[in-house]
Amino acid sequence: MTVHLHKHDLPDGIDFGKSVAVDTETQGLSMVRDKLCLVQLSAGDGDAHIVQMDRSSYDAPNLKKLMADPDVVKIFHFARFDVAMMLRDLEVVTAPVFCTKIASGLVRTYTDRHGLKDLTKELINVDLSKQQQSSDWAADELTVAQLNYAASDVLYLHQLKTILSARLMRESRWDIAQGCFEFLTTRAKLDLQGWADVDIFSHRMRRAD
After folding, report:
1. 62 vs 9, 69, 81, 107, CA distance in Å?
2. Contact 149, 133 (CB under 8 A)
């Protein structure tokens, strides 16, 4: 594995092909308070590219162009959060998207364990370390352990997509999965506008306190 660290944006001319695995790291999990710090990407070739964001401007034209490219599928795990963070801070609509967590929920109905660590262990026999999950991603200088952890979250998403796509087809759930993926931008907007914990489709909507 080679980890390439880029300051503020992707370099000119980088090509991830027709699909790119993507993940983000933020200062925390609050969509109101916590800023986007890193964006990790991989072409599924065993290497990772990590963009350390300029949190004062988020001027990253190459990264934004890639996220909005209609010819490149962006593969996430729990895309709902990542898409929202990039919509808020990069002001870009990320599409098209494949979310391995949504796909897992639709086809691995024999379990309620749909985390990335659970998926990689069961489907490709890779045991991911989560030791750096709670880390200072806003630090000016990132440690080797942080970079390796951030990279690990994108290195296996292409493999997971291949396996989960086959299962979606097998269970005749590909179309409903695509509908879920296409709804993610709207879901992200709802989250950012305060409807994260309110089911607007429910007959009895309860206001989140």
Report:
1. 6, 11, 21, 35
2. yes
Note the pLDDT tens digit of each residue in 36-84.
999 999 999 999 999 999 999 999 999 999 999 999 999 999 999 999 9
Query: Domain map of the chain by residue range?
Result: 3-192
In terms of CATH, what superfamily is 3-192? Ribonuclease H-like superfamily/Ribonuclease H (3.30.420.10)
pLDDT for 94: 98
**How many Cα atoms sit within 13 Å of 66 on the Cβ side?**
27
pLDDT of residue 29: 86
pTM score over 0.85: yes
Any residues with CB less than 8 A from the CB of 116 and at least 6 apart, and which? 77, 78, 100, 101, 128, 153
Mean pLDDT of 148-166: 97
Nearest of 62, 70, 76 to residue 93 by alpha carbon: 70
